[in-house]
Design a protein that fits this description.
globular, binds S-adenosyl-L-homocysteine, Rossmann fold, 551 residues
Amino acid sequence: MDPRKAPAILLLGSGGLPVARRIQALYPQARVLGLAGRVEGADATYAEFGETLRGLYRDDRPIIALCAAGILIRSLAAQLAGKGAEPPVLAVAEDGSAVVPLLGGLGGVNRMAREIAAQLEVAPAITTSGELRFGTCLLEPPAGYALADIEQGKRFVSDLLGGESVRVEGEAPWLEAANLPLADQARRVIHVTAEQRVDARDELLIHPRVVAARIDGDADAAGVRQALATAGLASGALACLLAAPARMTDAALASCADELGVPLRFVVDETALPPLHQHLSGIRLYRAAQPLEVERIGRRRGRLTVVGLGPGAAEFMVPATRRALDEAEDLLGYETYIRMAGPFRPEQVLHCTDNREELQRARHAFELAASGRRVVVVSSGDPGVFAMAAAVLEALDDNRDPRWLQVELQVFPGVSAALATAAKAGAPLGHDFCLISLSDNLKPWEVIEQRLDHAGAADLAMAFYNPISRARPWQLARALEIVARHRRPETVVVLGRDIGRPAEALTLTSLGELRPEQVDMRTLVIIGSSLTRRIPRPDGQDWVYTPRWYR
Ligand code: SAH
C-alpha cells in the first residue's frame, strides 16, 4: 500500500483497542488514534472526533473507525457534498463482529473490508452490486495496470449488471478468478493492451504499464504524450520516465513526470532496460512484455526532508510532516523526538543519536539521501529554530559534494516552543519580540549578554530557549539581571514546560519573583515587554497578552 495512504484507526473507547491492534497487524503503517481522556494505550490521541475525522478525510487518508456507522455518517455528512478526496471509510464494530465499508468505492474500500473481515473472521458487509456479482472490482485493476477512463468503466459495469456478457482480450491474470459472465461472442470486451485505441462504449480499456520513456532533450508532458501517440501507444501504458543521472536537479523534468503521474528514474546502465521500441526526437520509448517493475530500473533521486514535530501533541504537527515521516525510509534525530514521531514500520530505519552530534547527523543524512533513500531529519518544534535545519545547510555549505547537491532537499516548518507556549498563555508575543537561545555552546556568552541588553533596551518581548542545564547553571540568573536593567520587577513572565506533551505545565510569574530553580531545559521562558499584561480568565489563571499598540 502507498505509505502516504496509511490508514488511521480511530477509537472512541478503550474497549476497541484489541480489535484495533488486530487490524493494525494487517496494515503495520497504520496508526491507532484514541480519544484523549477516554482511550489508554493508543499510538496517539485526538481531542475531538468530528474534527479529526474530517481532517483525515480531507487529507485523503483511509479511515477505519471502531464506532457506530451512524456517528461516522453524521460527522462526515457536510463533507460529502463537495468534490475532492474520497478515501476509504469503514465502520468496524468495537467487538470486531461487523465490518462495514461506507465510502471510497474507487479507493479500494471493499478490498479493505474483505481484508479486515478475513482478519476478524467475519463476513464483510459489501453492498456494491458489481463486486457482489463479479467477485472483483473491475474498475480497480492491480498495480502495473491503468484503467483508461473511469466514467466509461462505470457504464461498462452497469451494462454487465444489466445482463450483457463479456469477453477478455489480452492478458488479465487477475480476472481469471473473477466470476464474469463470459461468452466468446460477447459484444462487450475487456481489452488489456498497451496500444492506443479509440474509446468505444462497449469496451473496458485497461493498459498494462509496459513503457518507459527516456528523455534526452527538453522535457514536457505534451511531447511525451505525442511521442507515445506517434508510436501507437496509450499514455496509460507509460510506467516511468527515464533520464541521465546528471539531470536529477532538472525541475522541468520532475514536473513533467508529475504531470504524467509516473515516477522518474535515473539510469546509467542501459542493459537493465527493456527493448527499444521507438526512437523519436529526444525521446526513446522502451517497451516490455509485462508491466515494468519500476523500482528495479535505474534509481530515483534521493530526498532529504528536515521536519519539526511541533511541541509534542500530534494535532500540532503539520500534515506535510506526517506524510514525510510516513514515507521515510531512514529517520535521524535525537532519540526522544524520533520516539515521539512514531510508531514506525519495521522496514523504516531509525538512526537515533545523541542530541549534540548535529553536524555529524546532518552529514549522515546527506550520505543516505545521496544514495537514493528517502531521509527525514527530525527536530522538535520548528526545525529552523535552534535545531537541525541550520545544521543540515551548514553540512551542505561545508561539503559541496556534487552527489549531495543532487539530493532533493526540503525543510518543513513546525510550531516552535515559543509559539506553542505563547498560545497557551494567550498572546504574550502579540507585538514585536525576539527569540534567544541562552546556550553558549556554540556562541560566546558575551554575545548573548549584548543581545539581551539590546533586546531589553528595545522593549522587545523575549522568548528564551535552552534557558538552563546542568552544564550551564548560572547563565539564566545572569540573563535575568541584564533584563532587569530595563524592566520593572512586575514585568510578566510566562514559563512553559513540556508544552503539548502529557506533563505540560504553564506558570505565570514576574521578573522580580522568577527563580532559576523554577526553570529547567524543558522550559521555555517568555519575558514580557513593558506593556505585557495579565487579565483574569474564568478558570482562575490569567490570560497574558502584549497589546498591539503603544500609548
Ligand atoms: N526547535 C525547537 C527548539 C529546540 S531548542 C523549537 O522550535 O521549539 C530546545 C529548547 O526549546 C528547550 O531547552 C526548551 O527551552 C524549548 N522547548 C522545546 N520544546 C519545548 C516544549 N514542548 N515545551 C517547552 N519548551 C520547549
